[in-house]
Amino acid sequence: MKGSNLLRAPTSLSTSLPLYSPLKFVAPFRNPICFSHLILSSLKLHPIRISSLHATATQETVEVGETESQFVEIGYISSVHGLQGEVRVKPNTDFPELRFAEPGRRWLKRQILGREIIEEVELMEGRGHHGQKSWIIKINNIEKVEQAQQLVGSTILVLDEDRPDLEEGDFYARDLVGMRVNLQETGEPVGTVVNVFDNGGSDLLQVKLNSSLEIIDKNGKMKSEAPLVWVPFVEAIVPHVDMIKREMTITPPKGLLELNVRSDERSKKERRQLEWKDRKKFQKRVIAAKKKLCEMEQKHVFEGFRYGEKSQGSLLAEQIVGVNSQLLQVALKTIETPSDRWHLSEFLAAYNKETTRHVFKVSKGCLVSEDKKYTSSKITERRKALISNGKVANILVVEGKSFESEGTDRLIQRLVEMESHGTTPLILVCPINKMETFQNLMTDNDYFGFDPEKVWILEEEKLPVVSSSHGEHGKHKILMKSPWEILQTPVGSGGVISLLSSHNSLESLAAMGVEYIEISSVDQRYIGGEDLVGLVDSSEANVGIKTFGGVNGVDDDFYMVFSMKFLAQLTKRVNELLFDAVLRSNQHVEMVDKEWVDITPSTHNSYEFRSSVYTCLKGCSFDKVCVMEVVD
């Protein structure tokens, strides 16, 4: 183990709630996401530059003590460094060089005998520890380890009046609060900014609408109260900010102001009762999930509940509920007994020896052209009939590594070239941090012709990363990214089978009359002329595979067709999914002697679990599989 340092939960660490709850399944876009449940524990004081892409924000939290002066939080002391009284600081500012490298006055806020005090100290020197994303500083008159230990957990402050001057176009979030908001086109007053939320990608303004503004909810009813809505702080929507007049103008897209307006007319008492029921349901899920983890000897995951703030405990609870313990138990078995995975190349080698096989060869040139002569009229006609009658559903899988600069263009190309959009159910599988991007892409392009009632987004299946060594109970321990976050990685394309079994998705598709499901990656290279579903139906097969000459078994480039009947059987046998346990090096935190410790490994220290959709071929009868081979 290399590079360990102590990490104590700070006495005042502000953590905003996530923009989206980490649910595995998101309903169709007809149910707009509501931001009104977000509660900011403290107002962020950060400079913001309006950008056409996103707003950049620092994290300096306004703190008001018993003194008249206002302070700005710039970080907290996480541990002692060395034997000369130095301490390690976790920064909470975009100006670390200014705050920690330049000597001068600073203030410490800490708890002494149950009371919160703020005391002035003198910073002597500081240097960056970039490998740990922290700073090491020396405070005057702190010469011994024992003295430094008393400062661990303290919050470091500077005076509000010492805020750096910002460049033109940059704003402190605190200065935006209270500003009037007007429509640019008409000058009509919209409301007042009451809060700012740092979303990581772009900031959000929480605006309290004027009661005189005519806001229609999605039921077509006028809202008499003054609701709160969220407005993205980007140049396209907020083109002008006037600091002198204390006002800004906005050009909201159609429907933005109505997005988060409550659409029901239930009384406050009824809403509270529903909220109470939802909390009770969630508590039961947490209890059940904790019981499962206890049975797996993973109680250390719960340590974070004893530290931090309420919002951090809520985040940990969400993480625990999100663990697929059944799938994790299956994956853990592969560490001691590696699964006998059958890769696509091995399957094809055995398949080609069979006499009862269905192989259909097409050329790359034909596949991407409008020329349909490469296939029989029976297959083509059958494909058209199935798709036009809504018998085929599409699942597009986007992995995080695939969705880079060209990812949006590839996804748009796939969506545009799909046939009979209006009758085809569509499921997008993606990382949780891409779900907002997908939603905006769909709504901005009128769902590319798909029926909004038949469009869903599923978060990709993930599993916790576990230690490569055995813990105290002889088990591989789940690793923690922070005291309140489980370290997790995507399972891969094989996780689609687990997702379909977790959300009753197949039942919904069956009710729509779907008979076949196409599952493919957004990286699938040759688009157009997709007659594989027609081939599967004509051959009365359960599975269809498209392969590319000489390139087999590539997880991020696959195209398969499953019959609903066979896929239903697979989802009932999730415990038979095959995994690879891959050795990796992963930073994490551990509780050591009642202190949180950062662990930076020098060698492989953990297992990540991967599963390929091709493992579904294991045990599949050859006469129920057909192959479309793309050749040069």
From TrEMBL:
InterPro entries to which the protein is assigned, alphabetical: Nucleotide-diphossugar_trans, PRC_barrel-like_sf, PRC_RimM, RimM, RimM_N, RimM_N_sf, Transl_B-barrel_sf, UDP-sugar_pyrophosphorylase
Domain of life: Eukaryota
UniProt xrefs under SUPFAM superfamilies: Nucleotide-diphospho-sugar transferases, PRC-barrel domain, Translation proteins
A single cellular component GO annotation: ribosome
Entry's Gene Ontology BP terms: rRNA processing; UDP-N-acetylglucosamine biosynthetic process
Domain annotation RimM N-terminal: ranges: 74-161
Domain (Ribosome maturation factor RimM PRC barrel) ranges: 175-256
GO molecular function: ribosome binding; UDP-N-acetylglucosamine diphosphorylase activity
Pfam families, alphabetized: PRC_RimM, RimM
UniProt name for this protein: RimM N-terminal domain-containing protein
Native organism: Lactuca virosa
